[in-house]
Hints:
Blueprint: H1 2-28, E1 30-33, E2 41-43, E3 50-52, E4 56-63, E5 71-75, H2 80-86, H3 107-114, E6 119-128, E7 131-137, E8 142-149, H4 151-157
Antiparallel strand pairs: 1-4, 2-3, 4-5, 5-8, 6-7, 7-8
Amino acid sequence: MVARVIIVAMLLMAATLGGVLYYQQVYAYYEEVQATDDAVRLTTVSLGDIEPIIVQSFEGIDAVSSPLRYRACFETTLSLAMLTETFVIVDNAEPRVAPNWFDCFNAAQIGADLQTEAVAFMGIENVEYGIDRIVAIYPDGRGYAWHQINECGEVVFDGNRPPEDCPPIPESNQ
């Protein structure tokens, strides 16, 4: 009888701790990102400057627990033709999965659409060291943004020295 009570208590504790862990991963650390006049910025082809674009219906989330948790959904009135002529296009964009409750962002669909109709742009390179903000825009004006590890980040986060063409590592990351 005592063994059964101990087993039930252990199962209840495991279920409770599992629930707490799930909540922390999916809900706990996210905060809403407020829409501002420069909520979405892209890197220009000509000078490499970062310029805001016109957006509306902006929804965004981020978390201090990881630089990769940023996600945003928005609409723009700018044409895709103008955007592709003005801003840097990214070829290796891979949207990261968002929490299920942030239902405007579907990483699998965005990833598939990047192969056919959507275009990915460099938002901000090294928004944090080794992390780029990528922005995908559709011909109809829908847009999505997320953070993605860049080539320098992949090398440094694996514990290796950065290649010559990477910026110096900030002291806070060493």
